[in-house]
């Protein structure tokens, strides 16, 4: 008996234990699970008798057995769906709305579908939407597998009006013009932007197997693999050289704080932190930069050597850059991280890595938005952080420059509208040069001058910085005016186009007239000062962007005689500006906008070819040949550092030979 009693107790405990285990192994989630056992609505006879209804149509089983009339309240709306199915449909409806909200305004088909109820059981509507989505997805897959297609190409292909921005905003778009044939050159240049076999990045090349790609820096100093060999004692002098040669174009750092960071590295060595990352980036920029000199890429009858041959310490700069990148992942989301991402992008622009630079500038903009979100105030008077204001404008300006050319999405920093005020200079300018000392190491990079002698340079730096921000604002107006409307919209209101061009030209002239003396330049004479030289190029760019739409319409659309004459005059002005841009960027000096300047030269040459082929350039044949040959020389000088530039030169030679 005792044994049987014990067995009963053990069995009872085992059953309870099993129940507990089952309850633990099969938890019920009430957040996303929905019961789907019962139908939505029973028939009226079953509801009246409170009996279970199996919802069979047209007669449920109970009514059929009793030979009674089976009636449902609603014979059309969702009666075949239970509660779980309806919930699933609602969730799908929400996701579809999110996916198609940005496309509905561009695609007539999506717009038509958005007005229909996705909870309807209309099979035709569902089939039509599914076919449309599959068609778009197939186009995207084909684009990835073959050549690059603009993300909105499949949305505008069925419409008669193409987006103007997609017609003449970049050199890839210009190559699509009918005057160049079928655009067969387009895939050649776009494919090289992201071709891993032609990577411009040292780390990308090192990750490939032997024989796939040659190292980029052939014949230059070997890259230092060991960080202690980065010559920590030279960091102080490199930081000073950076402040003289690079920081003057984007004065967003506090020189005193930067010097303290450098001193800590000299004393304690390289650390794995943000300050070390920032200092390493400034050293990389100092090594790769050089004093301004107007040296042409053509010397006499012979073409000069390539850009890598003229940058003997490129390998050392890459060592500092690589060491800084190892610390990027350790950054937070504060002001220091914003500066590191920004100067990382600046170095990548110096070394002609445009897509990597666009990513770095995007990260800088996003990090800035995160770091200032807590302190952001809508009241302009409350924005007292001058340092953050300088970060904002530098990040915004740099991202805008590269995104206009590459046509990549922006970070949304413009929409934040952090401030409309121009940045203000630091209160104590002495910090920029007060600690310059004539050490033997520093003399290898620069010849420091007394502060009073360098004061005009510091003032000119801030004049340039503010003038360049003002020019960026005008460029944004140009893009918003001419590069966002459709072709039919512009041609439908030609007087508005002329009025807009006159207003933009007036703003450009007003900007030029208000330039301070230290950065003033003459339109027809190359400026001798580096800062004025860059502003002069900015003025040419503004004019070229303003006149380009008129050349596009003149070459590609039928216009009446009076309108054609006015367009022709503006097209002649455009050709004159293009020749100025090409001559202006025939220079071997490396800077933040080097890749952009080569692309501008290529753009200008393509536009001259298009105008010359149609007889609308207003240039003599000798002027035309001189300009395009000079552009090819400029591209050839820099092409060893960027595969897309080499493709640009080959394409330009091809289209010129066919003219």
UniProtKB/TrEMBL annotation:
GO MF annotations in UniProt: DNA-binding transcription factor activity, RNA polymerase II-specific; zinc ion binding
Keyword Disulfide bond annotated: no
Region: Disordered, residue numbers: 1-33
CDD domains hit by this protein: fungal_TF_MHR, GAL4
UniProt KW keywords: Nucleus
InterPro entries per UniProt: EcdB-like_regulator (IPR053181), Zn2-C6_fun-type_DNA-bd_sf (IPR036864), Zn2Cys6_DnaBD (IPR001138)
Matching SMART domains: GAL4
Domain annotation Zn(2)-C6 fungal-type: ranges: 42-72
Presence of the UniProt keyword Nucleus in the record: yes
Pfam families, A to Z: Zn_clus (PF00172)
UniProt xrefs under Gene3D superfamilies: Zn(2)-C6 fungal-type DNA-binding domain
UniProt-listed PANTHER family: ZN(II)2CYS6 TRANSCRIPTION FACTOR (EUROFUNG), ZN(II)2CYS6 TRANSCRIPTION FACTOR (EUROFUNG)-RELATED-RELATED
Name the UniProt record assigns to this protein: Zn(2)-C6 fungal-type domain-containing protein
């Amino acid at each position: 008996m005792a044994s049987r009693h014990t067995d009963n107790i053990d069995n009872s405990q085992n059953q309870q234990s099993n129940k507990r285990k089952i309850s633990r192994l099969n938890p019920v989630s009430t957040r996303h699970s929905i019961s789907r056992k019962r139908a939505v609505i029973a028939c009226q006879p079953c509801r009246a008798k409170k009996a279970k209804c199996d919802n069979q149509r047209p007669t449920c089983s109970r009514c059929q057995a009793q030979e009674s009339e089976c009636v449902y309240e609603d014979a059309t709306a969702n009666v075949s769906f239970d509660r779980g199915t309806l919930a699933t449909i609602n969730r799908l409806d929400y996701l579809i709305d999110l996916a198609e909200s940005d496309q509905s305004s561009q695609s007539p088909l999506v717009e038509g579908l958005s007005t229909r109820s996705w909870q309807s059981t209309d099979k035709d509507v569902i089939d039509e939407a599914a076919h449309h989505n599959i068609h778009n997805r197939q186009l995207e897959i084909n684009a990835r597998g073959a050549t690059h297609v603009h993300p909105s190409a499949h949305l505008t292909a069925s419409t008669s009006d193409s987006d103007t921005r997609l017609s003449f905003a970049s050199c890839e778009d210009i190559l699509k013009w009918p005057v160049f044939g079928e655009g067969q050159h387009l895939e050649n240049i776009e494919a090289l932007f992201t071709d891993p076999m032609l990577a411009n990045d040292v780390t990308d090349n090192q990750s490939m197997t032997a024989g796939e790609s040659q190292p980029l820096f052939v014949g230059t100093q070997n890259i230092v693999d060991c960080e202690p060999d980065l010559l920590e004692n030279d960091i102080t002098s490199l930081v000073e050289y950076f402040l003289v040669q690079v920081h003057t174009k984007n004065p967003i750092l506090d020189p005193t704080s930067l010097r303290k960071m450098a001193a800590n590295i000299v004393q304690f060595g390289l650390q794995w932190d943000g300050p070390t990352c920032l200092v390493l980036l400034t050293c990389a920029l100092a090594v790769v930069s050089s004093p301004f000199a107007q040296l042409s890429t053509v010397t006499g009858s012979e073409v000069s050597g390539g850009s890598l041959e003229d940058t003997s310490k490129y390998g050392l700069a890459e060592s500092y850059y690589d060491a800084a990148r190892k610390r990027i992942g350790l950054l937070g989301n504060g002001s220091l991280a914003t500066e590191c991402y920004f100067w990382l992008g600046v170095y990548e622009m110096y070394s002609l890595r445009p897509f990597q630079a666009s990513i770095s500038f995007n990260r800088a903009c996003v990090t800035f938005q995160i770091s200032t979100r807590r302190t952001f105030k809508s009241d302009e008077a409350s924005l007292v952080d001058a340092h953050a204001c300088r970060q904002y404008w530098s990040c915004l300006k740099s991202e805008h420059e590269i995104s206009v050319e590459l046509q990549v999405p922006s970070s949304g920093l413009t929409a934040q509208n952090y401030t409309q005020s121009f940045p203000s200079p630091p209160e104590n300018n002495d910090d920029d040069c007060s600690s310059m000392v004539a050490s033997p190491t520093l003399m290898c990079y620069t010849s420091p001058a007394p502060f009073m002698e360098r004061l005009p340079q510091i003032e000119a730096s801030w004049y340039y910085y503010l003038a360049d921000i003002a020019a960026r604002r005008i460029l944004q107006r140009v893009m918003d005016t001419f590069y966002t409307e459709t072709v039919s919209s512009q041609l439908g209101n030609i007087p508005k186009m002329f009025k807009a061009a006159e207003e933009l030209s007036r703003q450009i002239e007003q900007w030029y007239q208000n330039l301070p003396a230290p950065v003033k330049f003459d339109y027809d004479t190359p400026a001798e000062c580096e800062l004025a030289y860059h502003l002069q190029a900015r003025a040419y760019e503004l004019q070229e962007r303003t006149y380009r739409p008129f050349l596009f319409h003149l070459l590609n659309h039928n216009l009446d005689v009076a309108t054609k004459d006015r367009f022709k005059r503006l097209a002649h002005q455009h050709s004159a500006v293009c020749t100025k841009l090409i001559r202006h960027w025939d220079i071997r000096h490396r800077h933040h906008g080097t890749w952009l300047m080569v692309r501008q030269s290529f753009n200008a040459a393509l536009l001259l070819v298009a105008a010359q082929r149609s007889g609308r350039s207003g240039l003599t044949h000798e002027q035309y040949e001189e300009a395009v040959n000079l552009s090819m020389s400029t591209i050839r000088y820099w092409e060893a550092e960027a595969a897309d530039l080499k493709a640009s030169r080959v394409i330009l030679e091809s289209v010129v030979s066919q003219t």
